[in-house]
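S1.2 Input.
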Amino acid sequence: MSRAIQKRTPLPTPVRLEDAQNVGTLLAGSRSAETRRSYASAMRTFTAWCQERGYPAVPTGPEVVASYIAHRSTYVAHSTISRDVAAISAAHLDTGLDDPTAHHGVRQALRSVGRTLGTAPSRRATPLTTILMRQIIDAMEDLETATGKRDRAILLLGLAAAQRRSEIAALTTNDIARQDAGLLLRIRRSKTDQTGRGDLIGIPLGAHPETCPVLALEAWLEASGRRLGDGTPVFSRIYNHSRIANAALSDRSIARIIQARAAAAGISGKDYAHTAGVAQTWVSGHSLRAGHATSAAEEGVDPMAISRTTRHRRLDSLARYVRPASALEDSTAGKIGL
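S1.3 Output.
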């Protein structure tokens, strides 16, 4: 008589506290710092809403999540609700709990909100194009100071390489090599390259000395006492307009510099909202990257060529900037004999 074989789930092996802490540190790096901040903010809002109604936040059930989606749909955009749902999902999965957002009812509620509100973004970063950048540089009255040289290098290098604010903040002098015709810049890691495969961007010498990113970077390196290849952060804080720190600027500091310099030049970005087809636009840390894509599209550069510098993995993401700039040139309406 055969004996039935019983499957047994192996018991977890206890590990040392030090090893458990190492695993925790490793898993914490699975998301970018910006994503962790965004999820934490979303969970604070969700937890406060649950507490007001006496609902459990973590763990919670799909009926609570669906109710929260319905509540949020009267206040925020679809993209924000999608972020909220992703944060709730992560909070459960990260602690070994069942994911309430995977329930069919929750997914249906999210799709219904998408149909009701639309999935197009309601806000967008104003592109700081080449024309606007000249306006910003012309308005800078401190170009002979260390602060002025640093900020000009941030603006021009970020625009030339279509960089995100986090990429500018992460640059070290080991990431840049000088060539006769310009610079080679290595982006070690980015939002769309979390595993650090890296991208190499070429930055030629500019046609105009006042807006040349290569000359601007060299002026800042000389003022800060840095050399290419010495491993130091490219951009750092400056105290009292003269004492240059060793620590790198944060990505938020980069964004504040971009916003302040644009505001000083009288650029708010509000007038771009109608062109972009969104409710609100503003100058942000993303405006340099958007400005590169828009400027290149206005000059008739092929989208595939633009994407090699902007590092967009999907052309539909790049089209958000290319379409407003080249809609008239791309249209076939003028070719059908009207």
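S1.4 Remarks. The longest strand covers residues 182-187.
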